[in-house]
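Example for tutorial group B:
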């Protein structure tokens, strides 16, 4: 009883004013004391009034101010709850706090600024029990923390930073693949987005050709939430690949890409990972001819917030890589080709036009290794993919 009374009294003195968060919108959440940012890395949690406990281990905290600018797990959507007042549902990663904990949270501002900024208290209450969200690791020098309801003092204070592509709280894409001077990122995010920076493009995969091609389809405008895409970036720097967060759009049909929100290795109930199957899955990388392609990869688990290619036919399983192509490129490179007799001697070039071998039998071309080649014999040329 004393414990519950203490929580109640603390609530009365710590939360004197309604939050002045600017309505529903996208925010980053940062602990005011430790300066670590919150990331939703799981969709499991609980709030037990009978044992006076709450499990909020789905929220992990990281300090790196650069990482947060390009990580989808750090983007939260605040939505005023049906009962209004200070109650909110906090959405992220395709779920929400109310979705997996069946609770709305109260967000209230403190009267006095903290380090010159408006700080907020985030808490839930039921049957006289009040639990405050905090960073359990108070050492400000540590990169990692973990959300808890057992912290106290300034560790229970939070900043809510509106995400805006024109401010330092922008969202920028950090590409993970560079191929032939272009930069790419496979992304799966729980929020809609569109391109703000010039040169940023979005692609889905609408066909898998077992001859070694993944047929891309450019999607313009706003990408709906929970749509796995390949993002072509203008540079390798996230600050130059900014997105507008929010908006609405119709669902994208015929997309063979899949995605995962979570790759949480924490033990016990928060373990949440998707095993990588090298036979039926391919991840974005660089193909043997130097172009962007879906390759077998070297993962044990699919990284969180990553899009990947799910093969749909056993005939595709033995193909190591699927080069990103438009349908027009597929017709040019794979369909409309001459056929050189297997007994002919050919000159072999890479897809970029570099001479690989001169005077080799066509039948011996597979000995050159995996890749896409251009074979020339006199005035006749042919493309060959070696798997």
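The residue assignment follows.
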């Amino acid at each position: 009883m004393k414990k519950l009374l203490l929580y109640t009294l603390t609530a009365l003195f710590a939360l004197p004013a309604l939050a002045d968060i600017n309505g529903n919108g996208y925010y980053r959440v940062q602990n005011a004391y430790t300066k670590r940012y919150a990331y939703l890395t799981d969709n499991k949690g609980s709030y037990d009034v009978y044992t006076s406990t709450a499990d909020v281990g789905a929220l992990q905290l990281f300090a790196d101010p650069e990482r947060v600018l390009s990580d989808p797990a750090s983007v939260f959507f605040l939505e005023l709850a049906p009962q209004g007042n200070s109650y909110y549902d906090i959405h992220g990663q395709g779920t929400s706090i109310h979705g997996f904990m069946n609770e709305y949270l109260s967000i209230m501002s403190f009267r006095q600024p903290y380090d010159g900024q408006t700080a907020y208290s985030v808490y839930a209450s039921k049957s006289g029990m009040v639990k405050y969200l905090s960073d359990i690791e108070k050492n400000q020098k540590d990169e990692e923390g973990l959300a808890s309801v057992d912290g106290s003092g300034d560790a229970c204070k939070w900043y809510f930073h509106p995400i805006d592509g024109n401010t330092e709280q922008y969202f920028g894409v950090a590409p993970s693949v560079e191929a032939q001077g272009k930069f790419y990122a496979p992304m799966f995010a729980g929020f809609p987005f569109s391109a703000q920076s010039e040169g940023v493009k979005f692609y889905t995969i609408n066909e898998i050709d077992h001859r070694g091609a993944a047929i891309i389809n450019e999607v313009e405008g706003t990408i709906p939430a929970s749509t796995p895409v390949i993002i072509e970036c203008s540079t390798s720097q996230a600050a130059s690949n900014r997105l507008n967060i929010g908006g609405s759009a119709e669902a994208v049909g015929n997309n063979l890409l899949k995605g995962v929100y979570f790759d949480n290795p924490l033990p016990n109930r928060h373990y949440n990972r998707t095993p990588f199957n090298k036979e039926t899955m391919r991840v974005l990388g660089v193909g043997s001819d130097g172009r962007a392609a879906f390759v077998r990869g070297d993962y044990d688990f699919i990284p969180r917030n990553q899009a990947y290619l799910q093969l749909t036919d056993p005939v595709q399983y033995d193909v190591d890589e699927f080069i990103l192509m438009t349908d027009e490129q597929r017709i040019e490179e794979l369909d409309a080709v001459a056929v050189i007799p297997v007994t002919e001697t050919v000159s072999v070039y890479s897809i970029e036009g570099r001479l690989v071998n001169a005077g080799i039998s066509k039948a011996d071309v597979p000995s050159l290794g995996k890749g896409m080649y251009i074979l020339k014999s006199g005035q006749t040329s042919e493309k060959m993919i070696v798997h």
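Confidence is low (pLDDT under 50) at residues 1-19. Compare this with the pattern of hydrophobic and polar residues in the output above.
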